[in-house]
Design brief:
Strands 1-7-6-5-4-3-2 form a seven-stranded antiparallel β-sheet. The protein is built from three helices and seven strands, in the order E-H-H-E-E-E-E-E-E-H. The chain is an alpha+beta fold and about 140 residues long. It has a single domain, classed as Alpha-D-Glucose-1,6-Bisphosphate, Chain A, domain 4. It holds the Pfam family Polyketide_cyc2. InterPro entries: Polyketide_cyclase/dehydratase, START-like_dom_sf.
């Protein structure tokens, strides 16, 4: 299985970092110009971006990528999977949170990906790794 991992320290308490990264709208900032829109709320009215929620990603009216939140453990872990994508056989995203100090949080973002076409996985993962590093740098400055 092909995978990437990005680690980033945020100079903020774990609950603040988790709150930021658990909202779909945050990824509009992190991955601009890609747009992210929640199209299905979770069943938890307190956390509409929680377990079961679905987000679409893309540009303008064309948002072919859909991801569903499958695990959300507050201040610990978020997992999501890609859904309804005929080009990708397997895609799992895991974001883990670790408190280093009261005002410093380590975020570890791991993505497993297997495309249906050979050699495509490595290309997609390389682009995702660059985008995540850049996006996390932007977000780290905002907290």
């Amino acid at each position: 299985m092909n995978s990437i991992q990005v680690k980033k320290e945020f100079n903020a308490p774990i609950d603040q970092v988790f709150d930021l990264l658990s909202k779909h709208a945050t990824y509009n900032v992190a991955f601009a110009p890609i747009q992210v829109v929640r199209i299905k709320d979770s069943e938890d009215p307190e956390r509409p971006d929680g377990i079961g929620s679905v987000r679409k990603m893309g540009f303008g009216p064309i948002k072919p990528i859909q991801e569903q939140i499958t695990v959300m453990k507050v201040n610990e872990r978020i997992e999501y999977k890609l859904i309804k994508n005929p080009l990708i056989k397997h895609h799992l995203g895991v974001i883990e949170f670790k408190e280093l100090t009261a005002n410093k949080t380590l975020v570890t973002y791991t993505i497993e990906l297997q495309a249906r076409a050979p050699f495509v996985s490595q290309i997609i993962l390389a682009q995702l790794k660059r985008a995540i590093k850049l996006g996390f740098s932007k977000l780290a400055k905002s907290v």
